[in-house]
Design a protein that fits this description.
This protein is mostly beta strands. It has one domain (6-92): SH3 type barrels. It is 4% helix and 40% strand. The strands form 2 sheets. Strands 6-3-2-1-7 form a 5-stranded antiparallel β-sheet, with no helix packed on it.
C-alpha cells in the first residue's frame, strides 16, 4: 500500500469530475499530469502548469509565475502515480535530508 505522503513532490495523473471549476485559471482538460505539492482536509494542492501574468502597461510582456491550485476531494475521479518512472517519481522530502541515527544491517549473535 502507498501513502499519499510518499508521493508529495512527484508528478501524478489526475482525472477531474468537473474540470469546468478550473477554467477560469486556465485548466481546460478533464485530466492531466501535475506536480503534487501537498494535501489537506480540503483536497490536493497541485502546481499550476503554466500561469502567466500580463503587465497592464505592456500587453506583450507576459511573465510566467509559480502558482498552486486546490483540487477538492469531491472533484477527483482518480489519481495515478508512477513509481520509479524517471521524471515523474522524485525522492520523498521525508527521506532526502535524514536527521538522526542510522544503523548498518549487522547480524547480531544470539547468546
Amino acid at each position: 500500500m502507498i501513502s499519499i505522503n510518499e508521493i508529495i513532490g512527484d508528478i501524478i495523473f489526475i482525472s477531474f469530475s468537473n474540470f469546468e471549476r478550473y477554467k477560469n485559471i486556465g485548466i481546460d482538460s478533464s485530466e492531466g499530469h501535475f506536480l503534487l505539492n501537498g494535501y489537506d482536509q480540503l483536497g490536493l494542492w497541485l502546481e499550476h502548469p503554466g500561469l502567466k501574468m500580463t503587465d497592464a502597461n505592456k500587453s506583450t510582456n507576459k511573465t510566467k509565475i509559480k502558482a498552486n491550485f486546490l483540487v477538492t476531494w469531491d472533484n477527483i475521479n482518480t489519481i495515478m502515480h508512477y513509481p520509479d518512472r524517471e521524471g515523474f517519481d522524485f525522492p520523498s522530502e521525508f527521506t532526502r535530508n535524514s536527521i538522526g541515527f542510522t544503523f548498518e544491517d549487522v547480524e547480531k549473535e544470539i547468546i
